[in-house]
Amino acid sequence: MDIGQIKDRKITEEMKESYLDYALSVIVSRALPDIRDGLKPVHRRILYAMDKLGLRPSAKFRKSATVVGEVLGKYHPHSDAAVYESMVNLAQDFKMLHPLVNGQGNFGSMDGDSAAAMRYTEAKMMLITEEMMKDIEKETVDFVDNYDGTRQEPTVLPAAFPQLLVNGTMGIAVGLATDILPHNLGEVIDATVHLADNPDATVEDLTQFVQGPDFPTGGSIFDKNEILQTFATGRGKIISRAKVEIQEPKEGKFQIVVSEMTFRTNKATLLEKIANLVKEKKIEEIRDLRDESDKDGVRVVIELKQDAYPNKALNKLYKYTDLQKTFHPNMLALVDGIQPKVLNLKAMLEYYIAHRKEIVTRRTQFDLNKAKDRAHILEGLKKALDHIDEVIATIKKSETKEVAHKNLMKKFGLSDKQSTAILEMRLQTLAGLEQKKIEDELKEKMALIKKLEDILKDPKKILKIIKDELIDIKNRFARPRQTKIFANAVGEFAREDLIPNEETVITLTNSGYIKRLNPETYKVQKRGGKGVIGMTPKEEDVVDHMLVAETHDVLLFFTNRGRVFQIKAYETPVASRTAKGSPIVNFLQMAPDEKVTVVLAIKTKGDNFVYSDSGYLVMITKVGVVKRTPLEDFANVRRSGLIAISLNKGDELGWVRLTSGKDEIMISTKDGQAIRCKETDIRSMGRSAIGVRGIRLKSGDSVVGACMIIGSKEDRKKLDVLVLTENGYGKRSALELYKVQKRGGSGIKTVNITTKTGKLIFSAIIDKDAEEEDLIVISRKGQVIRLAINSISKLGRATQGVRVMKMASGDRVASATRT
User: 308 is in which domain, residue-wise?
Assistant: First the structure.
């Protein structure tokens, strides 16, 4: 088309062609590495320019600006900043497992500090980089014109080791992205050698050698199954953690020390993130944070508060910061210099072996050609020396050098090169020893030619050369693995992983306000003390339930209407000692006239109930009906609740107890009666069953307590019955004083009820030798006392008891619990 001529063209076609040209340029010329040498064009040009400048490991350092200028002026027509940044990356030992550039000066840091300007830094090649360039002068790779056609540059480097897998790379092209993590040099070479010997080896076979990524920053990675998946498909998910140790330099004061970072993590940004998490109160366990890193390595110290749980604090750091990091490898590289492909581990090594076969073949052919050329010259020289007098005579008779050249070729059957070599031969060559040298060199060259020809004829010999050279590189450059690999997977953190499993006191008021707090809030007092304010209930509200649980326990809430609800203990709101808590209706979908009558804590592991001797739930109603149902029937309680027991009109569910199936049950009434019967007297029933009679009640009486008696016959001799009345009187009585009866009877007296004691409000089975067991009692007006159970007097079965808690005028005991 003539200049200035305008031609109509559809914009869709123009955009399509232009975009595809641009995309191809980005893919091939900028963003993606070549499978053979693992380099992008800019990195290849940097190394080639350094090689041409003579910046080998033994040379002096040169200004980085010299290298950048060389690359820009001759090979890479882009910005100097892009070239220098690429060169800096090749020199950073926290990004490259085996850096290819030896940088002198400030080349940046793990804290995100940028390198000094290129006029201040110096560089040359690393020793291992020579293995990338080795034999490039022997026509081992193809060369193409540079951008302005003034000189040539290599399309790929010989790469005597699998650089792409060893150092990895990242790149984003148009519609494509690559992320190949670094791997241990020794492991990769071992796998390459194994594949060369066993072409039918599977990816799984190769993972016996390449265990997984090996980061220059150390740390650890998890889940061998994910690693195998990545190697098998070229894509996957690798979870990495920093190397962390929990230390206790001073008694009770823990600190978390980070000595190895996760790969590609900016340490300064990480510290800033931790500080912000503390400020936002997402991690409240941290007291101080400091960076003690120096030239010898990383050391970040995170000091914890006195009462902090170190593992829980560490779990939070893993969850919210880059101390735990997930990589998504995408092993994409250019095949044949132009085609992007996602490759598995075996395919990557196969392409590399094919590349090395070509390199060794071309190198051998080059050496063979050189040897043949030299042998050809030596043969001519030998022939001349064998007929030296005739050669001299022929030259003397020739008028010119050119005529002599032709005469020698004609008379002695020499080639053009041989004739030229004879004419250039010096007189000293005529000496006897010099003639011997020519003959010896000729023999040597002929032997070399035979050896090189044998190599070219036998692919196994080429393969052996490849393996021997790889093993040599391994012996010289391989280092021990820096990243530890753990077989088990690291899953997503559940909320439970971030919450300490500690003892907690949970209270629920008559009006439905729930809260939890640390049991240490209530200090132990002597029997008869007044107690402390446990909460400030709203007017006419009282505490109905108080229990001690662990924060990871499942709480089962049973209501007066026989329904059951379930939440985790840590889901209940934390409140101060005097706070009233939060409405239970925020957590449970109860009906307006429904009320929680039992709160039960179940030990769990994950989402499953875990218990040692407890296999059933025994339910007791206000009118003395009992029912026994397998605990497993309550393993999946919906948020909307489930039916736990069907009730007769006017009855309410009052108590639920965990049993093993072989225990005894004691039911107590407000008038001071108690019955002790075997659990096996109550047959197992489904959730919707009504139940059977447990105790026969007199008019006006009702059940106020139910507890289980566990252990062997001998164990039960060590048990006491603890009772507490509404006016604060209590006592302990030997369990032996209560005979075992059949269910359905009226029972026997457990406490002498008077106007002074008030009605029975609480009963429990305790160990006689419970030295460290306490009783927490709360009154209707919110007074709480905590006292040692062994401080309560031991009296007869039908006695009144002694004062346990001094009640204010008009106040009554609401509930009690043991801890």
Answer: 243-322
